[in-house]
Specification:
Blueprint lengths: L8 H15 L15 E4 L3 E4 L2 H8 L3 H12 L3 E3 L5 E4 L4 H15 L10 E6 L2 E6 L5 E4 L12 H13 L1
Antiparallel strand pairs: 1-2, 2-4, 3-4, 5-6, 6-7
Family: Belongs to the eIF-2-beta/eIF-5 family.
GO cellular component, one term: eukaryotic translation initiation factor 2 complex
Organism: Pristionchus mayeri
């Protein structure tokens, strides 16, 4: 066997990269695929997220936690109906739900250290912790803040109010 001192820097780098590739076949964080939210209108003032329950189960997250996050991010109210369909007050597009879902995954599903998604979310007193089953990392995650919400649909209301006070 060769001594380490006989290897060039490039040879050692190649060896290390080969080992890394053998142990991590796919680049981390790129292989989490999730079905897109199925979104439809309910009447003229509500939006239905029909595969909400399936997506929550797929992420292995409590549907109640996922729902609270969506309501906070969309800045609205809503509930789960008898068919496990998530009904939200307001007219939202599919891309709104996709963005919120992506944010949820980034904060509450994907490990903040290694970006893998084999994680569990546990509550410890007031804090939620994300425990990674791939790298063993455990980190606290932000509590859902209902005050922090997207300005979806509120802009027109704010604009009308501003126009009335100005005019």
């Amino acid at each position: 066997a060769m001594q380490w001192s006989e290897y060039s820097y490039e040879d050692m780098l190649a060896l290390v990269l080969d080992m890394k590739r053998e142990n991590n076949p796919e680049p981390a964080g790129e292989r989490y695929t999730i079905m897109p939210p199925e979104v439809g209108r309910v009447g003229s003032k509500k939006t239905a997220f029909t595969n909400f329950d399936r997506i929550s189960k797929y992420m292995k997250r409590n549907p109640d936690h996922v729902m609270q996050f969506f309501l906070a991010e969309l800045g609205t109210s809503g509930s789960i109906d008898g068919n496990n369909c998530f009904i939200v007050k307001g007219r939202f597009q599919q891309k709104h739900f996709e963005n919120v879902l992506a944010n949820y995954i980034k904060e509450y599903v994907m490990c903040h250290s290694c970006k893998q998604t084999e994680t569990s979310l546990t509550r410890d007193t007031r804090l939620f912790f994300l425990q990674c089953h791939s790298c063993g990392s455990r980190c606290s995650v932000a509590a859902i803040k209902s005050g922090f919400s997207a300005m979806v649909g509120k802009r027109s209301v704010a604009r009308r109010a501003a126009q009335q006070t100005a005019g």
